[in-house]
Amino acid sequence: MQYSIGVEYALHCLVYLIDIPPDASIGIKELSSFQGISETYLSKIFRKLTKAGIVNSVPGVNGGYKLARPAADISFWDVVDAVEGAPSLFQCKNIKNNSYLCRDEDFKTCTMATPCVINLAMLDAEESMRTNLRKKSLRWLKEELSRVLTPQSLQDTREFFASSYKG
Q1: In 17-137, where does DSSP find H-type helix?
Q2: Can you give the pLDDT at residue 106?
Q3: How far is CA 16 from CA 33, 76, 128, 158, in A?
Q4: Nearest to residue 32, comparing CAs of 23, 20, 21, 40?
Q5: What is the DSSP annotation of 53-86?
Q6: Whole-number Å distance between alpha carbons of 143 and 19
Q7: What is the pLDDT of residues 8-34, one digit of tens each?
Q8: What whole-number distance in Å separates Cα of residue 130 and Cα of residue 135?
């Protein structure tokens, strides 16, 4: 399973929205410039985040984005689901029902009545991953970044965005 880079960009950009003043927002231009990606690409991601209720769009010339709810209430899974959608990673085709043994009608009837054990295992693994991603919030990400980044890089990031607040 591989998520698109859009999930990573979303998480990086969302963390910059955590501590902005309540009446401020940050524009796509500033976010894309800081991340070194196109405004068009990031706009597509933020439209999905807006639709999912993760960010609010502030319209107008001085518009931008801000978090729609507290960082502690936005999980990594919320972001993955918004950007990627939530299709099942494993698509069981019930090939067990096509085996050589299914030529026998009694065996085939029995086999078709039982769930695919491989599918159950894969669904269980997917749910474990989702559960883990639901436990990680934007607040957790901010705390981790504060722990591993240098004080200077944190200060430079704050200054970059503080000078570009809209609103």
Answers
A1: 28-35, 39-51, 76-84, 105-112, 117-135
A2: 59
A3: 13, 15, 28, 8
A4: 40
A5: TSEEEE-STT-EEEESS-GGG-BHHHHHHHHH--
A6: 12
A7: 999 999 999 999 998 899 999 999 999
A8: 9
The CA distance from 45 to 39, in Å, is 10
Other C-beta atoms closer than 10 Å to the C-beta of 74 total 26
Q: How far apart (Å, rounded) are the C-alpha atoms in residues 155 and 151?
A: 6
Please give the Cα distance from 64 to 147 (Å, whole number).
28
CA distance 61 to 68: 20
Angle between helices 76-84 and 117-135 (to 10 degrees): 120
Q: Which two tokens stand for residue 167?
A: 């609103």
Q: Distance (Å, rounded) from C-alpha 53 to C-alpha 5?
A: 20
Are 92 and 118 in contact by the 8 Å Cβ rule? The answer is yes
Q: pTM for the full model?
A: 0.84
Structure tokens at 55: 């960010």
The counts of H helices and E strands in the chain are 8, 2
> Position 18: which residue type?
I
